[in-house]
Design a protein that fits this description.
The chain is α/β, with parallel strands linked by helices and 209 residues long. It has a single domain (2-205), classed as Rossmann fold (3-Layer(aba) Sandwich), CATH 3.40.50. It is 32% helix and 24% strand. The protein contains 5 helices and 11 strands; from the N terminus they run E-E-H-E-E-E-E-E-H-E-H-E-E-H-E-H. The strands form 3 sheets. It has a 7-stranded mixed sheet with strand order 1-3-2-8-9-10-11, with helices on both faces. Helix 1 links the parallel strand 2 and strand 3 (47-51). It binds D-malate. D-malate is lined by residues 27-28, 66, 69-70, 108-109, 112, 160.
Length: 209
């Protein structure tokens, strides 16, 4: 199989001692550097694989195309979902982390691509942190997420993500048998230090045996 590792601009920060890899997906207009400090501050020291979205919207990086705010180009979303899955498989070989557990962490557009990846490839991530997410689409079949820990940090004051679409995501993840934790933040769409604190508390409370 052709290596897909050069298919995404990315950053890999190694910590061989850790059994985890945080896989980071920035929001619209971010890049592979945007969430690194947040991940380092909120998760115990782990390997980090951080991607840059390939789609451009007025010069801003995204993980999939949208027609307008909240209206997604579904063909592109499905195409990028597969493309990122193949990239991660290739990164596992390249950076030798086949045996490590992957923790997905994404903000806004980055959270939405994680959800799409989870719907198609539920095994790939051991857990997921979705910051200001929404339901990107309604899957046609029920998916078994097998008690996978998922943290949602959303805000009722979010200026970009309608609460109804976050609630739809919550209902769906519940019906797909995930181990869901939800916190409602005061901040709106922006991330604050409260997000760091919530992620840290959630991750440390998980039982990784
Ligand atoms: C999306 O396009 O994925 C959502 O509208 C969130 C965002 O604006 O990034």
């Amino acid at each position: 199989m052709k290596s897909e590792i050069n298919n995404y601009i990315h950053k890999f920060i190694q910590n061989e001692k850790s059994n985890f890899v945080a896989v980071l997906f920035h929001g619209t207009g971010g890049d592979e550097n945007s969430l690194v400090n947040l991940a380092m501050a909120s998760l115990p020291k782990m390997n980090i694989l951080s991607l840059r979205g390939k789609v451009k919207e007025n010069g801003m990086n995204r993980f999939f195309r949208r027609v307008e705010e909240g209206i997604f180009d579904m063909n592109d979303l499905f195409f990028r979902t597969d493309e990122i899955y193949n990239f991660i498989k290739s990164a596992k070989e390249t950076y030798s982390f086949n045996d490590k557990r992957l923790i997905a962490l994404g903000y806004s557009n980055g959270a939405n691509i994680i959800t799409s990846i989870l719907f198609k490839y539920p095994q790939i991530f051991a857990a997921a942190i979705l910051l200001r997410p929404m339901l990107p689409f309604q899957p046609t079949e029920k998916i078994n997420l097998n008690n996978k820990p998922i943290l949602i940090l959303s805000s009722p004051y979010d200026e970009i993500i309608p609460t109804t679409l976050t609630l739809k995501l919550i209902n769906m993840l519940n019906s797909f048998n995930s181990y869901l934790t939800i916190q409602w933040m005061e901040s709106g769409h922006a991330l604050t230090y409260q997000d760091v604190k919530e992620i840290r508390a959630w991750f440390n409370a998980l039982d990784w045996e």
